[in-house]
Amino acid sequence: MQSPPSCLVVLATGGTIAGRAASAQDNVGYRAAELGVDELLQGLDVSRWSGEALEIEAEQLARLDSKDMDHATWERLLARVAQHLARPQVQGIVITHGTDTLEETAWLLQRVLAPARPVVLTAAMRPASSLQADGPQNLADALRVAACPQAAGVLVVMAGRVLAAADARKRHTRRLDAFDAGDAGALAAVEEGRLRRWREWPRGRALGLGHLPKAGAEWPWVEIVTSHAGARADAVDALVAAGVRGLVVAGTGNGTVHQALEAALQRAQAAGVSIRLVSRCAEGPVIAGPDHRWPVYPSLSPAQARVELMLELMAPMPPMVAPSSALPEP
Protein backbone atom coordinates (compact mmCIF):
# COMPACT_ATOMS: atom_id res chain seq x y z
CA MET A 1 0.00 0.00 0.00
CA GLN A 2 1.12 3.54 -0.74
CA SER A 3 2.22 5.49 2.32
CA PRO A 4 0.21 8.64 3.18
CA PRO A 5 1.78 12.02 2.45
CA SER A 6 4.42 12.92 5.00
CA CYS A 7 5.81 16.33 4.05
CA LEU A 8 5.18 19.84 2.83
CA VAL A 9 7.59 21.54 0.43
CA VAL A 10 8.44 25.24 0.65
CA LEU A 11 10.02 26.88 -2.40
CA ALA A 12 11.35 30.38 -1.75
CA THR A 13 11.79 32.93 -4.53
CA GLY A 14 12.49 36.12 -2.56
CA GLY A 15 10.16 39.10 -2.36
CA THR A 16 9.17 41.45 0.44
CA ILE A 17 8.39 38.51 2.71
CA ALA A 18 12.17 37.99 2.79
CA GLY A 19 13.00 41.70 2.85
CA ARG A 20 14.99 43.60 5.43
CA ALA A 21 15.32 47.31 6.21
CA ALA A 22 17.79 49.20 8.41
CA SER A 23 14.92 50.33 10.67
CA ALA A 24 11.96 48.36 11.97
CA GLN A 25 9.83 51.43 11.24
CA ASP A 26 10.79 51.51 7.56
CA ASN A 27 8.26 49.69 5.38
CA VAL A 28 9.40 51.26 2.10
CA GLY A 29 13.20 51.53 1.98
CA TYR A 30 13.93 47.84 2.39
CA ARG A 31 15.87 45.34 0.30
CA ALA A 32 13.75 42.46 -0.96
CA ALA A 33 14.89 38.82 -0.93
CA GLU A 34 17.45 39.25 1.87
CA LEU A 35 16.38 36.38 4.15
CA GLY A 36 16.80 32.72 3.24
CA VAL A 37 14.00 30.19 3.44
CA ASP A 38 15.32 28.66 6.68
CA GLU A 39 15.06 32.07 8.37
CA LEU A 40 11.50 32.48 7.13
CA LEU A 41 10.49 29.15 8.64
CA GLN A 42 12.02 29.72 12.07
CA GLY A 43 9.45 29.29 14.82
CA LEU A 44 6.71 27.88 12.61
CA ASP A 45 5.23 24.60 13.84
CA VAL A 46 2.79 22.77 11.57
CA SER A 47 2.19 19.92 14.01
CA ARG A 48 -0.26 21.94 16.12
CA TRP A 49 -2.92 21.90 13.41
CA SER A 50 -1.85 19.42 10.72
CA GLY A 51 -3.18 16.34 12.49
CA GLU A 52 -0.26 14.45 11.01
CA ALA A 53 3.49 14.54 11.53
CA LEU A 54 4.25 16.53 8.38
CA GLU A 55 7.86 17.47 7.90
CA ILE A 56 8.85 20.59 5.98
CA GLU A 57 11.35 20.43 3.13
CA ALA A 58 12.68 23.84 2.14
CA GLU A 59 14.48 25.01 -0.99
CA GLN A 60 15.77 28.43 -2.01
CA LEU A 61 14.79 28.51 -5.66
CA ALA A 62 15.57 32.18 -6.33
CA ARG A 63 16.27 35.51 -4.59
CA LEU A 64 14.26 38.02 -6.60
CA ASP A 65 12.34 41.19 -6.07
CA SER A 66 9.26 39.96 -7.93
CA LYS A 67 9.09 43.09 -10.07
CA ASP A 68 12.07 41.46 -11.79
CA MET A 69 10.46 38.05 -12.29
CA ASP A 70 11.60 36.48 -15.56
CA HIS A 71 10.76 33.55 -17.79
CA ALA A 72 13.85 31.56 -16.76
CA THR A 73 12.76 31.65 -13.11
CA TRP A 74 9.24 30.68 -14.13
CA GLU A 75 10.66 27.68 -15.99
CA ARG A 76 12.66 26.55 -12.94
CA LEU A 77 9.67 27.04 -10.66
CA LEU A 78 7.31 25.08 -12.91
CA ALA A 79 9.82 22.25 -13.20
CA ARG A 80 10.43 22.01 -9.44
CA VAL A 81 6.74 22.17 -8.57
CA ALA A 82 6.00 19.41 -11.10
CA GLN A 83 8.82 17.27 -9.69
CA HIS A 84 7.54 17.61 -6.15
CA LEU A 85 3.92 16.97 -7.15
CA ALA A 86 5.08 13.69 -8.68
CA ARG A 87 6.27 12.54 -5.24
CA PRO A 88 3.49 10.72 -3.36
CA GLN A 89 4.89 11.78 0.02
CA VAL A 90 4.29 15.47 -0.73
CA GLN A 91 0.97 16.69 0.67
CA GLY A 92 1.26 20.21 -0.69
CA ILE A 93 3.64 22.97 -1.79
CA VAL A 94 4.07 26.52 -0.56
CA ILE A 95 5.81 29.16 -2.67
CA THR A 96 7.03 32.39 -1.10
CA HIS A 97 6.89 35.19 -3.66
CA GLY A 98 6.86 38.94 -4.06
CA THR A 99 3.46 40.60 -4.38
CA ASP A 100 4.15 42.60 -7.56
CA THR A 101 3.88 39.73 -10.04
CA LEU A 102 2.27 37.11 -7.81
CA GLU A 103 -1.00 36.96 -9.75
CA GLU A 104 0.90 36.28 -12.98
CA THR A 105 2.94 33.44 -11.47
CA ALA A 106 -0.15 31.93 -9.85
CA TRP A 107 -2.09 31.94 -13.12
CA LEU A 108 0.85 30.43 -15.03
CA LEU A 109 1.15 27.58 -12.49
CA GLN A 110 -2.57 26.88 -12.60
CA ARG A 111 -2.76 26.79 -16.39
CA VAL A 112 0.35 24.67 -16.91
CA LEU A 113 0.02 22.27 -13.96
CA ALA A 114 -3.62 22.44 -12.71
CA PRO A 115 -2.51 20.44 -9.65
CA ALA A 116 -4.77 18.00 -7.85
CA ARG A 117 -2.93 18.87 -4.63
CA PRO A 118 -2.55 22.38 -3.20
CA VAL A 119 0.16 24.69 -4.52
CA VAL A 120 -0.07 27.77 -2.33
CA LEU A 121 1.57 31.11 -3.04
CA THR A 122 2.07 33.55 -0.20
CA ALA A 123 3.82 36.86 0.24
CA ALA A 124 3.97 39.93 2.45
CA MET A 125 3.26 43.64 2.25
CA ARG A 126 5.79 44.48 4.97
CA PRO A 127 9.42 43.35 5.15
CA ALA A 128 10.46 40.78 7.72
CA SER A 129 12.21 43.51 9.72
CA SER A 130 9.02 45.58 10.10
CA LEU A 131 7.12 46.25 13.32
CA GLN A 132 4.09 45.18 11.26
CA ALA A 133 5.64 42.16 9.56
CA ASP A 134 2.82 40.11 8.03
CA GLY A 135 4.99 37.47 6.42
CA PRO A 136 5.18 34.99 9.34
CA GLN A 137 1.40 34.76 9.70
CA ASN A 138 0.85 34.56 5.95
CA LEU A 139 3.41 31.76 5.71
CA ALA A 140 1.85 29.89 8.63
CA ASP A 141 -1.60 30.21 7.00
CA ALA A 142 -0.22 29.02 3.65
CA LEU A 143 1.30 25.95 5.29
CA ARG A 144 -2.05 25.28 6.95
CA VAL A 145 -3.83 25.32 3.59
CA ALA A 146 -1.13 23.20 1.92
CA ALA A 147 -1.58 20.61 4.68
CA CYS A 148 -5.29 20.24 3.98
CA PRO A 149 -5.86 16.83 2.28
CA GLN A 150 -8.97 18.11 0.48
CA ALA A 151 -7.35 21.26 -0.96
CA ALA A 152 -6.41 21.42 -4.63
CA GLY A 153 -5.29 23.83 -7.31
CA VAL A 154 -3.06 26.88 -7.26
CA LEU A 155 -4.09 29.15 -4.40
CA VAL A 156 -3.03 32.51 -2.99
CA VAL A 157 -3.06 32.97 0.79
CA MET A 158 -2.77 36.51 2.11
CA ALA A 159 -4.19 38.22 5.21
CA GLY A 160 -6.11 35.12 6.23
CA ARG A 161 -7.93 34.74 2.91
CA VAL A 162 -7.59 31.89 0.44
CA LEU A 163 -8.01 32.96 -3.20
CA ALA A 164 -8.09 30.98 -6.43
CA ALA A 165 -5.28 31.79 -8.86
CA ALA A 166 -7.77 32.93 -11.51
CA ASP A 167 -9.37 35.45 -9.15
CA ALA A 168 -6.44 36.82 -7.13
CA ARG A 169 -5.61 40.49 -7.74
CA LYS A 170 -3.32 42.95 -6.00
CA ARG A 171 -5.64 45.92 -5.54
CA HIS A 172 -3.81 48.11 -3.04
CA THR A 173 -0.27 49.43 -2.93
CA ARG A 174 0.33 49.20 0.84
CA ARG A 175 -2.45 47.63 2.91
CA LEU A 176 -1.81 44.25 4.52
CA ASP A 177 -4.98 42.93 2.87
CA ALA A 178 -3.85 44.16 -0.55
CA PHE A 179 -5.17 41.05 -2.36
CA ASP A 180 -8.76 40.09 -2.99
CA ALA A 181 -10.84 38.12 -5.47
CA GLY A 182 -13.31 40.74 -6.67
CA ASP A 183 -16.79 39.52 -7.56
CA ALA A 184 -15.80 35.87 -7.17
CA GLY A 185 -14.89 36.21 -3.51
CA ALA A 186 -12.49 34.17 -1.41
CA LEU A 187 -12.52 30.38 -1.49
CA ALA A 188 -11.84 30.06 2.22
CA ALA A 189 -10.35 31.73 5.28
CA VAL A 190 -7.75 30.65 7.80
CA GLU A 191 -8.82 31.58 11.33
CA GLU A 192 -6.40 30.77 14.15
CA GLY A 193 -5.19 27.69 12.31
CA ARG A 194 -8.70 26.57 11.35
CA LEU A 195 -9.70 26.45 7.70
CA ARG A 196 -13.22 27.60 6.82
CA ARG A 197 -14.18 26.97 3.17
CA TRP A 198 -17.04 28.55 1.21
CA ARG A 199 -16.37 27.58 -2.41
CA GLU A 200 -15.03 24.53 -4.26
CA TRP A 201 -11.30 24.17 -4.80
CA PRO A 202 -10.23 25.15 -8.35
CA ARG A 203 -9.91 22.43 -10.94
CA GLY A 204 -8.72 22.48 -14.52
CA ARG A 205 -6.96 20.62 -17.29
CA ALA A 206 -3.18 20.91 -17.20
CA LEU A 207 -1.38 22.02 -20.34
CA GLY A 208 1.76 20.27 -19.04
CA LEU A 209 5.41 21.23 -19.09
CA GLY A 210 5.66 19.98 -22.66
CA HIS A 211 3.57 22.97 -23.72
CA LEU A 212 6.43 25.34 -22.87
CA PRO A 213 9.29 26.24 -25.24
CA LYS A 214 12.35 24.04 -25.10
CA ALA A 215 14.95 24.99 -22.51
CA GLY A 216 16.77 28.13 -23.55
CA ALA A 217 14.24 29.07 -26.22
CA GLU A 218 12.53 32.45 -26.18
CA TRP A 219 8.97 32.79 -24.97
CA PRO A 220 6.58 34.57 -27.36
CA TRP A 221 6.83 38.34 -27.01
CA VAL A 222 3.52 39.74 -25.77
CA GLU A 223 2.94 43.28 -24.57
CA ILE A 224 0.08 45.14 -22.90
CA VAL A 225 -1.33 48.27 -24.55
CA THR A 226 -3.71 50.48 -22.58
CA SER A 227 -6.57 52.41 -24.16
CA HIS A 228 -6.99 55.89 -22.64
CA ALA A 229 -7.97 59.44 -23.45
CA GLY A 230 -5.73 60.85 -26.15
CA ALA A 231 -4.43 57.42 -27.18
CA ARG A 232 -2.11 57.28 -30.19
CA ALA A 233 -1.32 54.54 -32.69
CA ASP A 234 2.43 55.06 -32.62
CA ALA A 235 3.13 52.62 -29.79
CA VAL A 236 1.27 49.79 -31.51
CA ASP A 237 3.03 50.45 -34.82
CA ALA A 238 6.43 50.54 -33.09
CA LEU A 239 5.81 47.24 -31.30
CA VAL A 240 4.77 45.56 -34.55
CA ALA A 241 7.86 46.89 -36.30
CA ALA A 242 10.00 45.52 -33.45
CA GLY A 243 8.56 42.02 -33.83
CA VAL A 244 5.93 41.67 -31.10
CA ARG A 245 3.77 38.54 -31.53
CA GLY A 246 0.83 39.38 -29.34
CA LEU A 247 -0.90 42.42 -27.87
CA VAL A 248 -3.25 42.47 -24.91
CA VAL A 249 -5.37 45.61 -25.04
CA ALA A 250 -6.50 46.85 -21.63
CA GLY A 251 -9.61 48.64 -22.77
CA THR A 252 -11.82 51.11 -21.00
CA GLY A 253 -15.06 49.95 -19.38
CA ASN A 254 -16.36 46.82 -21.07
CA GLY A 255 -13.16 46.34 -23.08
CA THR A 256 -13.68 49.31 -25.40
CA VAL A 257 -10.81 50.74 -27.47
CA HIS A 258 -10.02 54.34 -28.44
CA GLN A 259 -10.68 54.96 -32.13
CA ALA A 260 -7.08 56.09 -32.65
CA LEU A 261 -5.87 52.62 -31.67
CA GLU A 262 -8.29 50.62 -33.79
CA ALA A 263 -6.63 51.17 -37.15
CA ALA A 264 -3.21 50.38 -35.71
CA LEU A 265 -4.51 47.20 -34.11
CA GLN A 266 -6.10 46.15 -37.39
CA ARG A 267 -2.75 46.68 -39.12
CA ALA A 268 -1.08 44.66 -36.39
CA GLN A 269 -3.50 41.80 -36.86
CA ALA A 270 -3.01 41.89 -40.63
CA ALA A 271 0.74 41.56 -39.95
CA GLY A 272 0.13 38.36 -37.96
CA VAL A 273 -0.02 39.79 -34.43
CA SER A 274 -2.62 38.19 -32.14
CA ILE A 275 -4.88 40.68 -30.36
CA ARG A 276 -6.87 40.04 -27.18
CA LEU A 277 -9.11 42.38 -25.21
CA VAL A 278 -9.52 42.80 -21.45
CA SER A 279 -10.71 45.66 -19.28
CA ARG A 280 -8.49 48.01 -17.33
CA CYS A 281 -11.24 48.14 -14.67
CA ALA A 282 -10.36 46.51 -11.37
CA GLU A 283 -13.57 44.48 -11.15
CA GLY A 284 -16.26 43.03 -13.36
CA PRO A 285 -16.09 40.79 -16.44
CA VAL A 286 -16.01 41.92 -20.05
CA ILE A 287 -19.22 40.87 -21.80
CA ALA A 288 -18.27 40.16 -25.41
CA GLY A 289 -20.52 41.82 -27.95
CA PRO A 290 -20.71 43.06 -31.55
CA ASP A 291 -18.62 46.16 -30.74
CA HIS A 292 -15.58 44.05 -29.88
CA ARG A 293 -13.38 43.63 -32.93
CA TRP A 294 -11.06 41.11 -31.28
CA PRO A 295 -11.48 38.09 -28.98
CA VAL A 296 -11.99 38.84 -25.31
CA TYR A 297 -10.55 37.32 -22.15
CA PRO A 298 -13.65 37.98 -20.07
CA SER A 299 -12.29 37.86 -16.53
CA LEU A 300 -8.49 38.00 -16.61
CA SER A 301 -6.44 40.98 -15.48
CA PRO A 302 -4.19 42.51 -18.15
CA ALA A 303 -1.14 40.86 -16.54
CA GLN A 304 -2.81 37.44 -16.43
CA ALA A 305 -4.03 37.93 -19.99
CA ARG A 306 -0.46 38.47 -21.14
CA VAL A 307 0.46 35.09 -19.61
CA GLU A 308 -2.54 33.47 -21.26
CA LEU A 309 -1.72 34.83 -24.71
CA MET A 310 1.90 33.71 -24.39
CA LEU A 311 0.64 30.20 -23.63
CA GLU A 312 -1.68 30.35 -26.65
CA LEU A 313 1.20 31.34 -28.90
CA MET A 314 3.48 28.57 -27.61
CA ALA A 315 1.36 25.71 -28.93
CA PRO A 316 -2.25 24.88 -29.83
CA MET A 317 -4.51 24.87 -26.77
CA PRO A 318 -8.22 25.07 -25.96
CA PRO A 319 -9.15 28.76 -26.15
CA MET A 320 -10.56 30.50 -23.10
CA VAL A 321 -11.59 33.61 -25.01
CA ALA A 322 -15.06 34.88 -25.73
CA PRO A 323 -15.25 35.19 -29.52
CA SER A 324 -15.97 38.53 -31.11
CA SER A 325 -18.24 38.95 -34.11
CA ALA A 326 -15.65 40.68 -36.27
CA LEU A 327 -12.15 40.32 -37.66
CA PRO A 328 -11.13 36.65 -37.42
CA GLU A 329 -7.65 35.73 -36.34
CA PRO A 330 -5.12 35.60 -39.22
Structure in words:
- The protein has 8 helices and 13 strands.
- β3 (90-96), α4 (102-113) and β4 (118-122) form a beta-alpha-beta unit.
- The chain has 2 domains: 7-197, L-asparaginase, N-terminal domain (Rossmann fold); 220-314, Rossmann fold.
- Strands 2-1-3-4-5-6-9-10 form an 8-stranded mixed beta sheet.
- By secondary structure, the chain is of the alpha/beta class.
- Mean pLDDT is 93; it is low at 324-330.
Keywords summarizing the entry:
330 residues; alpha/beta; Rossmann fold; 2 domains; eight-stranded mixed β-sheet; three-stranded parallel β-sheet; 8 helices; 13 strands; globular
Task: Provide the CATH topology of the largest domain.
Answer: Rossmann fold
Structural class: alpha/beta
Q: For the report, how would you describe the main beta sheet?
A: 8 strands, mixed
Name the CATH superfamily classification of the largest domain: L-asparaginase, N-terminal domain
Strand content: 15-25%
In total, the number of domains comes to 2
- How many angstroms does the end-to-end distance come to? 53 Å
Strand segment tally: 13
Q: Number of helical runs? A: 8
Q: Write down the overall mean pLDDT.
A: 93
Rg, rounded, reads 20 Å
Instruction: Kindly provide the name of the CATH class of the largest domain.
Output: Alpha Beta
Arrangement of strands in the largest sheet: 2-1-3-4-5-6-9-10
- CATH-defined architecture of the largest domain: 3-Layer(aba) Sandwich
